[in-house]
Every structure is written in C-alpha cells, then in structure tokens.
Amino acid sequence: MNLINLPKIELHCHLDGSLRAETVIDIARKEGINLPSFDIEVIKKELTAPLECESLDDYLKAFSLPNLVMQSKYSLRRITFELLEDASRENVKYMEIRFAPLLHTSKGLEVEEIIESVLDGIKDAEEKYDIKGNLILCCMRTMAPDKAFDIVEKGKNFLGKGVVAIDLCASENEGFCKAFVEPIALARQYGYRITIHAGETGIGKNVLEAVELLRAERIGHGVFIKDCADAYKIVKDKKVVLEMCPTSNVQTKAVSGFNEHPIYDFHKDGIRVTVNTDNRTVSNTDMTNEFNIVAKEFNISMEDYREIYHNSVEASFADLETKEKLKKYMKDK
Predict the structure, then answer these.
(1) Is residue 197 part of an annotated ligand binding site?
(2) Where are the catalytic residues (predicted)?
(3) Is 130 annotated for ligand binding?
C-alpha cells in the first residue's frame, strides 16, 4: 500500500498539540510573547513529548508552550489554517479538530470570538485545499462542571456552522463522568454530538460510564476496555467508535509498545476503530505515520484499510453530503 496517496479521515486531533515550531516563534515575535528560547531546535523539543513519557500527565506538559501563542484571533485562525494545510498534504480529506476554548481567554478574548477564529481558519483552508473540517469543543475535566455549561451555551450558536460536537478531556480520574452528566445532557439537547476521552489511563470503567451516563457516540482512545468486560461489551454491542492514537498511547504508557496496542485485536473482533494522530506536533506524527505503524505491526491489508476508512466516514460528525463525497475517494482504491 502506498499510504501517502490514500485518502484519510482524522477524527481525533487537538489544535494546541499540532502547531508548527516556526509559527510559535513567528507569533511570539509578532505579539511580543516571551519564549524560553527563539532557537527553532529548542522550541521543537519543547513542543514534542518523548516516546518515553512517564504518564498522561507527563505528556500533557508539552501543551504549556503552545497556549502562550494561542491568545489572539490572528494566531488561532493562522494555526488552524496551517493544521489543515499540513493534513491536506498527506491526503487527509476530512478532519475534526478539537480544542478547549477556555484555554485561550487569558488576553481577554471572549469564548465566541475564540470559536469564530478557529472556524475562520477552517474555512480559509477549505477554500484553498481539497479538505473539509469541523470543530469539536472540549470541556476540561480539571475545571468545574459549571465551566462546561459555559462552553455548551456559548458554542450552541455555532452548531450547523462548523461546530459539531462536545468532548471532555485532560487528566483522567476514575468516575469523572458523574460530575458532567447535566452539561453533556444539555449539549445533546441542543444538538451537539458526543465524544468523550475515556479509558486512556487504565480505567476501562470510565468508558462504560461515558456510554451509559453521557451517551457517548465515540470514545477518545478507549484502550482499557481490554481490561473491563462490561465496557468492552457495551462498546461492541452499541457500535461505539474508538478514536485510537497509537503513538500517543505509547507515549502516555497506555500501552508499553506498538506491538501491544489492542487496535488490531479490536478491529478483528468487530469493534469499530479509527486511526488518528491525537497531537501532530506533541507526538511528532501524522496520519501516514500512524497507518505505517499499524501496517508494520499488524500487517493490515488493503481491505482492513478500506474498512477503517469507512468506519471513520460513518463515525464522523459530518453531514450526509460530505459523507457521500468522502466515500467516493475510496471507490477506485
């Protein structure tokens, strides 16, 4: 398989984990922001987590620098455009970008301005490249549930205009779903689709609760359903889609090595899996690299690739017209 030429769908990609190092330096200079260094190699190292992270929390340290340069409408629009531009160069035809608007308010931007700036960046890229983007709004599990209500309320005016879903992310503690039942229920009522980070750090039961309590349609990562029979069963029976990110999962110690990743076992057992980068810069990866890893470790066939691609199309929060267009890209492959 010539993976670089195949069409791709990415459903799990964090905006603040996918910045170009050159852009970080350029924005910092333009906006008078102090960086630890203006040396490109130093910044690249700061933005990238090592493969040998100690944990998810250790991995998340790489996000402190990007947020310094993501506090203006210009920077948010530019960074979003560049992410889609980079993705389009490896034949990503559709991607859902996710980010937490509340992390970008430190210089006075309103949540609505923040969301609008990212949507403008998506539109800029769509006009220039053969790629379609949508936006997922993240609520931080480390913040109080009333902050989630704030995002749900302020984001609802952008539903149907590029915002498609709500997510819960950040450090994962057991039983986190219970605190967010009400804001996620309100989001669902407004028309947001639901994807939840769960089962990334050894707590398979969080996936079960994300589906039962929050009615998650997709799960970010979900690795640890392998250790929780009830979570495994509900994901399989309800056809909940897993947004899997092999490199990130090795970095955060969700798995000890690529050969131990459960993605292919899940796939062969009928669980719907998708392949994603999670964070292109923090994980120093792209979609081609992620599929190369899966192909090398598990010897996937073209039929496997086609099935994962179609899983991704069907699981996407795109409209029907977009889904039909995406299916056509694989017809002659």
Answers:
(1) yes
(2) 200 (proton donor)
(3) no
